[in-house]
Design brief:
Blueprint lengths: L2 E9 L11 H16 L4 E5 L11 H11 L8 E4 L5 H11 L3 E11 L3 H12 L4 E7 L6 H18 L8 H11 L18
Parallel strand pairs: 1-2, 1-4, 2-3, 4-5
Length: 198
């Protein structure tokens, strides 16, 4: 029987080649930990691949290490995914990592300017079975208008790319990612390994 759980998903932002996490990533971790400490969540899940050309470090794993080493979170309460390359991947691969559970509630932690797009994407992958709430760690970005414009454009691209896709079907999602999404189809980054497929 699958266990019913509540989880926090903390989305990574950036790190340097040595695994030193960027300011936004640290702010997201801090916000996630605050929520974890004051509420009864069962797990924190982190995600992110080895996106840097000059490093083999998986940012999802680095974020998990930070939660254990700096914040004292029990490693048994952390789940790590190292497949995601963007927010769509975060939602999809987090869902796949949690397939052995019934996720009643998920709190997703990102940056303040990224809340709307994150909520839209995660709800496509998890609703109605899972209650999704998204919070944004405060940022001090100077080019906020440009960033918000990019977020709106990304929502439009997401809608076009996944038009007509059944989000409950892993096969349909994988097919769309590997044929239409430039982060996964080889246009921008290398194609995923064979175990990416269903």
């Amino acid at each position: 029987m699958r266990r019913n759980i509540r989880v926090i998903a903390v989305l990574a932002h950036l790190m340097d080649k040595n695994g030193v996490l960027g300011e936004e990533t640290v702010a997201r971790i801090e916000a996630a930990f605050e929520q974890y400490e004051c509420s009864k969540f069962d797990y924190i899940i982190t995600s992110g691949w080895d996106y840097r050309d000059d490093s083999n470090l998986m940012i999802g794993a680095v974020v998990a290490e930070c939660l254990v080493d700096r914040y004292g979170v029990d490693v048994n309460h952390i789940i790590v995914d190292i497949n995601s390359r963007d927010t769509v991947g975060d939602a999809f691969f987090i869902r796949r990592r949690l397939c052995d559970f019934i996720v009643s509630e998920m709190l997703v932690v990102t940056s303040d300017y990224h809340v709307e797009r994150t909520g839209l994407i995660f709800k496509k992958f998890f609703s109605p079975a899972t209650k999704i709430k998204v919070i944004g760690a405060k940022t001090n970005v100077v080019n906020r208008e440009s960033i918000e414009s990019h977020e709106n454009s990304s929502i439009d691209v997401f809608s076009r790319t996944f038009q007509g896709v059944d989000f409950s079907s892993d096969n349909e999602v994988v097919n769309t990612l590997t044929t239409k999404h430039p982060f996964y189809n080889g246009s921008i980054y290398r194609k995923p390994l064979a175990d990416f497929s269903i």
